Amino acid sequence: MANTLDPMDLKHIITLHLDGFSNRKIGSTLDISRNTVNTYMKFFKGNEYSFKELLSFDNPRL
């Protein structure tokens, strides 16, 4: 990915997803592209960790 997000933005994406926000609403809330949110959500869902586990990671590990 050419433009990577700050780890805090990644945590915001996860938190908003857990709160029931759609990818489109997450994008508009964080002022990022819906496609960027879609890309990160695919990455999050494709790994071995749950969303709650990802939130517990420190920033460098995330």
Order of helices and strands: HHHH
**What ranges have pLDDT less than 50 throughout 5 or more consecutive residues?**
none
Roughly what percent helix?
A: 55-70%
Q: State which percent range the strand residues make up.
A: under 5%
Return Rg in Å: 11 Å
Which class of secondary structure composition applies to the elements? Answer: mainly alpha
Shape: globular
- Average pLDDT value? 91
Counting structural domains, the number is 1
Number of helices: 4
Outline the biggest β-sheet. Answer: none
Distance between the termini: 15 Å
What's the β-strand tally?
0
Protein name: HTH luxR-type domain-containing protein
Domain HTH luxR-type: 13-42
GO molecular function: DNA binding
Pfam families: GerE (PF00196)
Structure explained in plain terms:
Residues 13-42 form the HTH luxR-type domain. The chain is mostly helical. The chain has one domain (7-56). The chain is 61% helix and 0% strand. It contains four helices and no strands. Helix 1 (7-18) packs across helix 2 (23-30) and helix 2 crosses helix 3. The radius of gyration is 11 Å and the shape is globular. The two termini are 15 Å apart. The mean pLDDT is 91.
